[in-house]
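LOG
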Amino acid sequence: MVTVMRTRIVNCQIFDPATGGDAFPGWVEFENGVITAVGKGQAPAPSAGAEITDIDGQGFTLAPSFVDMYANFCEPGYEYRETVASGSRAAASGGYTAVCLRPDTDPIIQRSDVVRFLLERGVFANMVDIFPIGALSMNMEGQTMAEIGEMAAAGARLVGEGNTFVKRTGFLRRCMEYAGNFGLVVMLTNEDPSLAEGPCHEGFMSTSRGLKCTPVQAEEIAVARHIALAELTGTPTHLVKISSAAGVRLIRDARARGINITASVSIHNLALNEDANAGYDAMTKVWPPLRAEEDRLALLAALEDGTIDIVVSDHDPHVIEGKEVEFDLATVGASSIELTFGVLNTLVERGELKFATVIRALATAPRKIMHLDGGVISAGMPADLVLLDRKAVRKVCGAELVSQGVNTPFDGTDLAGCPVMTFRRGRMTFAA
């Protein structure tokens, strides 16, 4: 008789987005990376010929694992800040099993060989699935189209220019049309650089402290242009890191008209507002700028009603020397991928978000946009799962992050909730 080897997570609260209801006590069984059975209540005894390893869920919440559509692991070229291996470990500790990487590395992700290199690095690290985001233009200069077709053939699913704004609208149109031929999603960041003067929100706070700033109209103009191009080309377009109520209004109107766009918000813009910059703490220097409180509230409402689909970590690690300088000279970005769930769950505890919205934004919607399997807990689906302690209180210490980057605006903050186990295709990649 052949012995069947299976793993089972028991004594947990299962939250399956497909059911649309509350979590229920139960168990999940998987074999060879695929879920084989899901049940309520106490798990039954193993059948004859089956050897099952039980993992005690300790009453924690079991949900589909997370997918991050916008992060920077810095490799190749900036390995002193982060590598695919260290970033993958940080991602796994944050509950992620798939991460999309920005193209602004050195060399830039603009050819098929760089795509293959990063895919191989992801396989070697063996912690999360890596999805390189190919550049639209060579050297991200907005002049000559990158090898979009060859990158798609090598395994790229997404293309975009990272945090760079493509100035030539006609060129961007051709890139979008060409990418659409390969079924790629075009990811666009939204800030007209001719209006952008600094990394802070234009308002009383920045003016009173003499900080360089950018008005929300810089985003509004860019979002309007990208919506118009999405309508013109018909190419699936993702608007990355929306930060303002003005951007939300435009997206809501466009989606009501049936335009093929999706949108994301950075964890920083959901949790923080411009007041975080008031003390000149360079750890709070991120892009897009931290906006006014009314913008933050509009983003929360847009995430709840589905106008904004997903939350991205915008993980961007930097060496500490880049932050321990004057605010205007400091590097832009924050190390955040392992803190994203804790920040969102803290907003849930405050009553600003629903837990179902968090799981949709981290697990279900990204997979839908990228046409990935999973995002639900049912037989036949990949065993990509995360066990969450929603009540644990963790004080963030930047120096203790798994990532090589210690630059976080949440340093010293108490966060409610954290991942305790992550499973990628049935293999445990993280255990607290």
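LOG (cont.) second protein
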Amino acid sequence: MELKQLLALVTVGDTGSVTKAARLLHVVQPAVSRYIRALEDEVGVPLFERSRQGMTLTPAGEVLAERARRALLELDRARAEIRPDREHVRGIVTIGLLESTVELVAAPLVEVLGRRHPGIDVRILSAFSGHLRQWLDDGEVDMSLLYNVNSTPSIAVTPLLREALWAIAPPGAELGREALTWDRVCENPLILPVAGHGLRTLVDEALGTAPTIVCQTNSMPVQKRLVAAGTGWSVLPAAGVAEDVAAGRLRGGPIVDPAISRTIVLALPRAGRIPPAAEVAATEIVRVTHRLVEDGTWPTASVAQAG
């Protein structure tokens, strides 16, 4: 297999068109078709289903394209690391951020990496903790924020902070001055994560009685929009709603009786060598998250103690 063939495979798979792929790869269309045919001859199975609507990867093509993407990414990383630069650490770093932390963490992290380490090509992916853990195991991300996870033989975990979960209410809700209890929260219809989600598990463990659930969703933005529209209340990490509460788009505060919290950690794979660019990025993530806690930007959070 040649590099140009793998590039053609991935690009045609992404665009669904030989013509579009040729344009992006800056080669003629017959060349792209020739690369695909050569790959199919080598592996002995069709890699694409061809129709008037375009080119669609077959199951075998999906498998090969996934491996090809990883191989191409590793080559990009190698090029970035060995490119001459006497002043800066260089490399590509893909960082996984919990969806609930993006609003607080992404901007300061990208800013500090760009200012202190301009040779690092930063790529950020966001998702829920379960998806991020899978991406970390599969090598799709170099490191990731996760929560309520301990070190294992495959990943090394650094505790970053603990944060309380908040009850979130519509902007016109009267919360009063007393602490929000679960009984108070459950007086209202709830919008919660889908069953099986890590946050939903924490909520279910804290609830003494079955609440009235009007909607379950795997999207935090959907939860916030529904609450803002007055559909019901929700329970979310403070990091995900701090800006909305400060701006008056939502009301909210920590829940007591019982109070529940989560521990956010930084996880890196144990296998293989950690590139210098990844080591630098990991250090900056620790600094940024601790600074957000210490200056009060991350509400009701405290720096976690290792061990």
